[in-house]
């Protein structure tokens, strides 16, 4: 009995004195944002040491069909570490007014399984914190479906405009180089 109590006390001491390793980061991705049409949130530090493909999206845009290729990129590269994240925005007046409708376009119409966040601004003073950084590093999106490839170490940001298709050779080569 005494050995059991001693072992238990040693285990408790070890648990209480061991620092907890939380998902933390000391860069612009130390941000928590709510997922699209959900009460759940995601902290971008969860994606530490992984390249990010960040896209400002819209449900009623001529480029909305790019969701299909973004989903294909997600499926092709997620096991290699790429994280695709969509940011619905009404900055260009082409997003649904109701978040449930935006979710339907993404999840039902296009079968999106990559992370989609709640609608937010991506330009100007009201831009969400992620886009404030991306805009400072490159420039703010001039339309929907601008793509920002952020290196795993967060030191490099490459910007691709709306006309760059997600499966284009130029973007897929940049992704492969970042993995």
From TrEMBL:
Keyword Signal among UniProt keywords: yes
Gene3D superfamilies (UniProt xref): Glutaredoxin (3.40.30.10)
GO MF annotation terms: peroxidase activity
Transferase is among the record's keywords: no
CDD domains the UniProt entry points to: GSH_Peroxidase
Keywords: Oxidoreductase, Peroxidase, Signal
Active site, UniProt feature: 61
GO biological processes: cellular response to oxidative stress
Family: Belongs to the glutathione peroxidase family.
Protein name: Glutathione peroxidase
Biological source species: Pseudoalteromonas phenolica
